[in-house]
Every structure is written in structure tokens, then in C-alpha cells.
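FAQ

Q: What does a record look like?
A: Structure on top, sequence underneath. For example:
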């Protein structure tokens, strides 16, 4: 346990190297990049707010912010949830390093597509 920081730092450096090699197209035996988890959000919060106020009035708000897409769909019910579908986006998840045996499809990205500032420190 005394060396936990040292070991964790080394593993993070190895992971960063693996990600860097995969992004550059070199490959890293036994691993690939896949899309990580992401959450849905409003494409335009102002438009979502106006639409929700028209559809469900006061239920559109929690204290000081517009409710989430999931909360809105629940408040609207299945019948009316489609009215807000075009207001919702699901951004790509952060690339995640996994074993090659993982069932998710691998990502094809280039160095220009990749945010190197998002790498673990």
C-alpha cells in the first residue's frame, strides 16, 4: 500500500501510452478504443425550456434549471415524448481503453479527432 501512488501512476502512464499508440494507428496488442458512456443532453436548452413550458408548465423546472431529457420524457409520458425527440442529443462518449475481447465495436479515430488533453494525467 505504501507504493500505491507509484504503481497507479505507472499504470496511468502505460494506459496513456496505449491510447496514444491506438490513436496514432500503431496499435497496442490486446487492446482497442471503444466509445465510452455518455449522457443525453439538450441540444438547445432554451428551445427545450420553451417547448417544455408549453407542454408541461411548472414540471419543466427543478430549482433554477431545466429538467433533464429523461425527466421530461417521464413527465410527458410515452404518448407525447416524441414531441421533444429532436431537442435531445447524445454526444459521443470519451474513448475508453478495453481488452480486444470486449464486444463493443472499436473506434476508428485519427490524431486530429482526438483530444489529447482528455488523457489521464
Amino acid at each position: 500500500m505504501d507504493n500505491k501512488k507509484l504503481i497507479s501512476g505507472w499504470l496511468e502512464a502505460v494506459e496513456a501510452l496505449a491510447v496514444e499508440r491506438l490513436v496514432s494507428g500503431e496499435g497496442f496488442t490486446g487492446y482497442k478504443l471503444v466509445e465510452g458512456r455518455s449522457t443525453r443532453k439538450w441540444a438547445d436548452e432554451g428551445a427545450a425550456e420553451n417547448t417544455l413550458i408549453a407542454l408541461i408548465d411548472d414540471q419543466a423546472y427543478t430549482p433554477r434549471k431545466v429538467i433533464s431529457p429523461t425527466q421530461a420524457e417521464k413527465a410527458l409520458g410515452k404518448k407525447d415524448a416524441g414531441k421533444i425527440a429532436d431537442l435531445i442529443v447524445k454526444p459521443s462518449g470519451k474513448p475508453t481503453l478495453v481488452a480486444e475481447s470486449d464486444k463493443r465495436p472499436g473506434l476508428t479515430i485519427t490524431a486530429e479527432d482526438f483530444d489529447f488533453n482528455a488523457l489521464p494525467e
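Q: Is there anything notable about this one?
A: The chain has two domains: 4-38+92-118, 43-89.
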